[in-house]
Design goal:
There is one protein chain. Helix 4 packs antiparallel against helix 5, helix 5 crosses helix 6 and helix 6 crosses helix 7. A hairpin with an 8-residue loop joins strand 7 and strand 8. The chain is of the alpha/beta class. The relative contact order is 0.12. The strands form 2 sheets. Strands 1-2-3-4-5-6 form a 6-stranded mixed beta sheet, with helices on one face. The mean pLDDT is 96. The protein is 35% helix and 18% strand.
Length: 233
């Protein structure tokens, strides 16, 4: 069942719905954000009850997505058909921030209303844990640059999964440091003789949930590709 959530971090003009699609990659489920001007960010899965909940919380005039993964966009076509909403046309008071890395098409949305600012971070910054760099579409170098960009926004971060974050800039800085630490661990694994991505995962992500080991391998492949650009391989 779709959950309507609350947080002291939310401006009055933002409504938070969580889709009923929990899992190892989606955490508690995909967060759908509704703004009081009729903008919907990340409709989530093509789940009738969830889409009905979005319409009930409406109005729905336009639909935006942070990136093209199915757990964010699967419901776009159905919601547009239900409401006649436009797709991909951001209002003037939303600034689109290009933040590739998790995927090549990842963006965040900076919203400012009534003196209050928030950033909708999609999967670039999750509410907890770290995001997958989804090789071959994802790119570690681009992700580090995107995190640099987001360190400039010390405002609440409203992510694609997980809880709202009090400070997007702090979360971005932590994630950037974490990514650099992981790169050092990959370098150490290579020095120990690991070569194949699966071997690097065994050393660097030894405690990964078997259900998402494939995601760790995506990230390792992206890390190895990044190190190759630095002539370290």
């Amino acid at each position: 069942m779709t959950a309507r959530l609350t947080s002291d971090l939310l401006p009055a003009w933002v409504t938070w719905l969580r889709a009923p699609n929990p899992g190892p990659m989606t955490l508690d489920g995909t967060n759908t954000w509704l703004l009081d001007d009729g903008t919907v960010i990340d409709p989530g899965p093509d789940d009738p009850a969830h889409l009905d909940a979005i319409v009930a919380a409406g109005p729905v005039r336009r639909i935006l997505v942070t990136h093209g993964h199915h757990d964010h966009v699967e419901g776009v076509a159905t919601l547009a058909a239900m409401t006649g909403a436009s797709v991909g046309e951001a209002p003037d008071w939303l600034t689109v921030l290009d933040t590739p890395g998790h995927t090549a098409d990842s963006v965040c949305f900076l919203a400012e209303r009534d003196g209050t600012r928030v950033v909708f971070t999609g999967d670039t910054i999750l509410g907890r844990g770290s995001s997958v760099v989804a090789w071959p579409d994802g790119d570690v170098g681009a992700y580090l640059a995107s995190l640099d960009t987001l360190t400039g926004y010390p405002v609440p971060g409203l992510p694609g999964h997980g809880p709202a974050l009090p400070n997007c800039a702090v979360a971005a800085a932590w994630l950037r440091a974490h990514r650099l630490e992981r790169l050092d661990q990959v370098r150490a694994a290579l020095k120990q003789g690991a070569r194949a991505p699966e071997e690097v995962v065994d050393l660097v992500y030894a405690d990964v949930d078997p259900g998402i080991r494939f995601a760790a391998e995506w990230t390792v492949r992206a890390q190895l590709a990044y190190l190759a650009t630095l002539s370290e391989l």
